[in-house]
Design goal:
alpha/beta, Ribosomal Protein L4, Chain: A, six-stranded mixed sheet, 8 helices
Amino acid sequence: MISGQWPVIRNAKTMATIDIHDLSGKKVGTFDLADEIFGAVNEDLLWEAVKHYRAGQHRGTHATKARWQVSGSGKKLWKQKGTGRARIGSIRSPLWRHGGTVHGPVPRSYDYAFPRKKLLGALRSALASKFADGKLTVVNAFDVKEPKTKEFRAALEALKVESTVLIVDAPNAANRNLELSARNIKGLELIPGNEVHPYHLLRYDRVIFSHPAIEKLQLTLQDTLPKRQRKHAKEEGAKKASASPRKRVRQSYAFNRMRILSFPITFHSL
């Protein structure tokens, strides 16, 4: 610190922001991200959410035929005793070729119940992970004038999309030009904001939200926070709103002198 200057204490914790671009890649504004949504990442919760989603996608149509389902006569082939051969009751026996299968797989559902709070927590973690990796992009709107794939691909190149991408638009946006322009691009998926799942966010390399979509999603996730966490977030927001951006610490010379002289001094005899 340069002598003659007073120390300046700044607020270390500030709300994160993300730039808003248009489809040409030009910055047109910023958007404030809530710390309770785009904060910590729970990898265990993400693993559970992805496992549950993939289990729900499992069709479970596997099936084998049991003894009573295979074709064949039920007549006893030969008498029980006196032939010297092994006893047999039916050609549909599991011991014979083309016979039934014992304890084979049957059609069933692999889906199971998953707590809603855990799913919402995983969604918050997925959003925080994408933001921390710099893979989250926000555009003001998907204003596609004509349903042409070439023009929309040029817009993605302007947004520096090099790999797979997830496009998230506002619910009930009814953007037909966007649907027609994006459906033929390999490695791209378009979903509404109310159907976003942690699996989608982790599957694709980049995620592009429209401003109304991410704003609506953030408000929804804030409303579904636990009461204790929601109360803590409100208190933190009130502190940030009331605190000034810069605070100067000034102490008088007399106060410093008094504090120095208040230290205990011990004299040792020689």
